UniProtKB/TrEMBL annotation:
This is Transposase. Residues 86-181 form the Transposase IS204/IS1001/IS1096/IS1165 DDE domain. Residues 210-243 are annotated as: Disordered. Transmembrane segments: none annotated.
Length: 243
C-alpha cells in the first residue's frame, strides 16, 4: 500500500461544475483512479488476464481478471504510422447479415483499421490517406479491387495465399466432377480382371514355397511332387526288411 499526501484545490468560480481539484502525481495517479498505471501496464498488458491476476494476488494486490481485461481495453490504440504492405479482407459481425472490413499491416501483423461494410468507397478513402502503401494483398472480390485501384493506384495488387489455394481446390473439384465418367472408365481399363488376379496369387504362393517360406494356403499335391502320406509306407517296409 502507498500512503500518499496530496493537495486539494477549490475552484472559486460559481459556474465551474467541479468544486475541488486534487493534485495528481505524474506516472502514479490519475483522476478517479483506484489503481496505479503500473498495475495497468506491467501486469495487464504484459501478462494478460489470468496470469496477471495470480501474480497480483501473490503481491498482495488482489484484482479480478475481468478488471484487468477492462484496463487493457481502455488503453488507446497505438498509432498505425506508415504502412507499406497491407492486407484487406472481410469478416462477419453477424453471419450472412452484417460484415466489416479489416486492414492489417502485414509487416508487423497487426490490425490498423476496421471499416464497416464491404463497399469500395470507404476503403478507397482510407487507402488514399496513406500514399506510402506499396502492396495491397486482397481476395478476388470486385469491391476490394476497385477500392485498391481508386485509393492506391501506385500500389501493386496481389492475391493472398489462402484464396489462391481455395480457388485452385474449387477448380480441381469442378473439373473432376465434370469428368467423373471418364475417370471411372480409365480405372476400369487399368484394373486387371479377376482371373489375372487369381493367377498372380498362385504364382506368388509357388514362389514362396520354392524359396522355403510357408505359403498362406496349402497347394494341392502334384504328380511330380509325391505326397508325404504316400512316402511313409515305403519307409516302414524298408525298416521291416532290415529287421
Amino acid at each position: 500500500m502507498i500512503d500518499l499526501l496530496v493537495r486539494r484545490f477549490k475552484c472559486v468560480s460559481d459556474t465551474c461544475p467541479a468544486v475541488t481539484f486534487a493534485e495528481q502525481v505524474p506516472g502514479l495517479t490519475h483522476p478517479h483512479g483506484r489503481r496505479t498505471p503500473v498495475l495497468q501496464h506491467r501486469f495487464a498488458v504484459a501478462l494478460a488476464a489470468r496470469p496477471a491476476a495470480r501474480l497480483a494476488r501473490r503481491l498482495g494486490v488482489p484484482v479480478a481478471k475481468d478488471t484487468l481485461l477492462r484496463l487493457v481495453r481502455a488503453l488507446p490504440d497505438p498509432p498505425a504510422g506508415d504502412v507499406r504492405i497491407v492486407g484487406v479482407d472481410d469478416f462477419a459481425l453477424r453471419r450472412r447479415h452484417v460484415y466489416a472490413t479489416i486492414i492489417v499491416d502485414l509487416q508487423t501483423r497487426r490490425p490498423v483499421e476496421v471499416i464497416e461494410g464491404r463497399d469500395a468507397g470507404p476503403i478507397a478513402a482510407w487507402l488514399a490517406g496513406h500514399p506510402e502503401i506499396e502492396v495491397v494483398c486482397r481476395d478476388r472480390g470486385r469491391a476490394y479491387a476497385e477500392a485498391a485501384r481508386a485509393g492506391a493506384p501506385q500500389a501493386q495488387q496481389v492475391a493472398d495465399r489462402w484464396h489462391l489455394w481455395h480457388n485452385l481446390c474449387e477448380a480441381v473439384e469442378k473439373t473432376v466432377a465434370a469428368h467423373h465418367s471418364c475417370i471411372e472408365a480409365a480405372f476400369a481399363v487399368a484394373e486387371p480382371p479377376v482371373e489375372c488376379q487369381r493367377r498372380y496369387r498362385c504364382r506368388m504362393r509357388t514362389a514362396a514355397s520354392v524359396a522355403g517360406h510357408a505359403p498362406s494356403s496349402p497347394a494341392p499335391p502334384s504328380a511330380t511332387t509325391p505326397c508325404r502320406n504316400s512316402s511313409r509306407p515305403a519307409v516302414r517296409s524298408k525298416a521291416s526288411a532290415a529287421t
